Amino acid sequence: MTIFAVATILFFIFRVMPGDPTAQVISPALDEAAQTRLKEAFGLDKPLGVQYLLYMKNMLTLNWGRSYTTQHEVFGILKYRFWNTIFLMGAAMSFTLVLGTGLGMLMAWKRGSALDVGSTVTALVLQSAPPFVTGILFLMILSYRLDLFPTGGMATPGMRLAAGIQMLFSKDFLHHLVLPTITTAFYYLATPMLIMRDSMLEVIGSDYIELAQAKGLSPNVVMIKHAARNALLPVFTVSSVLIGFALGGQVIVEQVFSWPGMGQLMVEAASSHDYPVAQATFLLLAVLVIVLNLLSDISYCYLDPRISMGGGKN
């Protein structure tokens, strides 16, 4: 139902935007008969209600039509861009969750220390800076001044990217991945870090932690095996929401670093009134967020036995 509502909103919102989409497809210099044939080919001659029904049918069958601007199949365009976004988001979110959870654990264990205060201030400063600001700063300092990283794209001009899994282990690809990854990761770092810190502080005061310490277990064993494991559930819960925000935020990061992903594609398609591409891109991102939230809820039920999926009696 949620996906149906999102698809409906996308269909109508793009059609109330200013601008004539037919201008991208049909040149005014063509004769009237040619313009009519092109409108029929793209379905632009039909009433809005008929267009909507065809749109919903095509969305269900993954027949997303052709781009108005490039004439390429929309599915083929999204297939390439989708994985580019997933690679970037996956690297950034992995870095965010691992570093944020680890720092949050140490901050709670050493509450009030310089590490605790310094990490909190740093994370809040990074979160208050928009990704396009930190991204541009990274480009100015690390790319233009120090020449440590490339200025954008996924590969050095003139070099051919490897296909499939080989690309993930390509030095050139990984070199281009660093700056957009840390730009995204630093912006979202504060959320898992502070949630893990607060959750750890609650767990540390529990009786079983005192019992583990009384048994003479080493501080590292108590911190990791007993405290951190029981403090991870809130971080896991918020991770799906965080990934959803990150997917939306990829638009800015991909524009700054010229990363050919779905975020950059959304901007290009919306600005050129390329309805088929824009609708499919927004819908695919929405479906991805919805599925991730669903998987998170299901996984949470298995991680926390106190929660029942069926809502039956305990």
Notes on the structure:
The protein is an all-alpha fold and 314 residues long. The protein has two domains: 59 residues, no CATH class; 185 residues, Orthogonal Bundle (MetI-like fold). 72% of the residues lie in helices and 0% in strands. The two termini are 30 Å apart.
Summarize the structure.
The chain has 314 residues and is mainly α.
- Give me the CATH fold name of the largest domain: MetI-like fold
* CATH-derived architecture of the largest domain: Orthogonal Bundle
Poorly predicted ranges (pLDDT <50, ≥5 residues)?
A: none
Binned strand content: under 5%
CATH class of the largest domain: Mainly Alpha
Largest sheet: none
What layout of secondary structure does this protein have?
Elements: H1 2-15, H2 32-42, H3 48-60, H4 74-109, H5 114-128, H6 131-145, H7 165-168, H8 171-188, H9 190-204, H10 207-214, H11 219-256, H12 262-271, H13 275-303
